[in-house]
Specification:
The complex is a heterodimer of chains A (112) and B (115). By secondary structure, chain A is mostly beta strands. In chain A, the strands form 2 sheets. In chain A, strands 2, 4, 5, 9, 10 and 11 form a 6-stranded mixed sheet that branches. Helices cover 0% and strands 56% of the residues of chain A. Chain A has no helices and 11 strands. With 115 residues, chain B is mainly β. Chain B is built from no helices and 11 strands. In chain B, the strands form 2 sheets. In chain B, strands 2, 4, 5, 6, 9, 10 and 11 form a 7-stranded mixed sheet that branches. A 4-stranded antiparallel sheet of chain B has the order 1-3-8-7, with no helix packed on it. In chain B, a hairpin with an 8-residue loop joins strand 9 and strand 10 (105-106). Chain B is globular. The chains are: A mainly beta (112), B mainly beta (115). The A-B interface holds A 1, 6, 31-34, 36, 42-46, 49, 51, 89, 91, 93, 96-105 and B 31, 33, 35, 41-45, 48, 56, 58, 91, 95, 99-109.
Chain lengths: 112, 115
C-alpha cells in the first residue's frame, strides 16, 4: 500500500520567513496530494492540493510543488505569520480511490 | 450547507464498555471515511463506506470495531469492550458522488477517552 513520509517533524521560523515541508510517497499510482492544517483540538482543514498533471500550484502565500519522477511533493509558506502556527499534514491518495494516506505531520511554530 | 457533523464531540467510557460514534456527511455526499488520530500522531485510515456498503475496511482492527452507513441515518463507528489504547480522536470525512479522487471534508472529530 501507499507509504507517505514527512519531514521535518517540527519546524520553527521567525515571522516573515519562509517555511518548507517535504513529503515522499511510494505508490506511483497516486495522483492527488492534499495538504491539511490542523490547529490544536480542531479538525484537519484542506489548505491546498495538487494533482499529478501539474508540477506547481500557488494560492497567495502558499504553494505546493510536485515531482512525480522522484515521488516527492513540498509545501511552501512565504511571509509566515503567527496564525500559521499549527500541525501540517501531507497526504496522498491510493490509486483512483479517495482514501488518503497521511504523513506523520509537521509542527510549525512561527515566532515573533 | 452544514459541514460534516459528528457526535458526540467528547465521550468517556470505562474499560469494557461500548462506544458509538456518529457521523452525518455533508448534504449530497454519499461516501464516508473514518480516520483515527492518536495523540501527537497523524491520521490513520480505518474504513470507507458508501450507503449500505463497506468498500474498504483494511484499516479496521479485526476485533471489537465495526462500522455501518445505513440507507437512512448517520454512519456509525462502534467499538465494543473498549480498552485504554482506544483513546483517540476519531474523525469522519465525506466526499460527494463522482468527486475527483481525494476531496475529503472532515468533521470536528469525536474524542474518546477510556478510563
Amino acid at each position: 500500500g501507499e507509504n507517505v513520509e514527512q519531514h521535518p517533524s517540527t519546524l520553527s521560523v521567525q515571522e516573515g520567513d519562509s517555511a518548507v515541508i517535504k513529503c515522499t510517497y511510494s505508490d506511483s499510482a497516486s495522483n492527488y496530494f492534499p495538504w491539511y492544517k490542523q490547529e490544536l483540538g480542531k479538525r484537519p482543514q484542506l489548505i491546498i492540493d495538487i494533482r499529478s498533471n501539474v508540477g506547481e500550484k500557488k494560492d497567495q502565500r502558499i504553494a505546493v510543488t510536485l515531482n512525480k519522477t522522484a515521488k516527492h511533493f513540498s509545501l511552501h509558506i512565504t511571509e509566515t505569520q503567527p496564525e500559521d502556527s499549527a500541525v501540517y499534514f501531507c497526504a496522498a491518495n491510493t490509486g483512483t480511490a479517495s482514501k488518503l494516506t497521511f504523513g506523520t505531520g509537521t509542527r510549525l511554530q512561527v515566532t515573533l | 450547507n452544514a459541514g460534516v457533523m459528528q457526535n458526540p464531540r467528547h465521550l468517556v467510557r470505562r474499560r469494557g464498555q461500548e462506544a458509538r460514534l456518529r457521523c452525518s456527511p455533508m448534504k449530497g455526499h454519499s461516501h464516508v471515511y473514518w480516520y483515527r488520530q492518536l495523540p501527537e500522531e497523524g491520521l490513520k485510515f480505518m474504513v470507507y463506506l458508501q450507503k449500505e456498503n463497506i468498500i474498504d475496511e483494511s484499516g479496521m482492527p479485526k476485533e471489537r470495531f465495526s462500522a455501518e452507513f445505513p440507507k437512512e441515518g448517520p454512519s456509525i463507528l462502534r467499538i465494543q469492550q473498549v480498552v485504554r489504547g482506544d483513546s483517540a480522536a476519531y474523525f469522519c470525512a465525506s466526499s460527494p458522488e463522482g468527486s475527483k479522487a481525494g476531496e475529503l471534508f472532515f468533521g470536528e472529530g469525536s474524542r474518546l477517552t477510556v478510563l
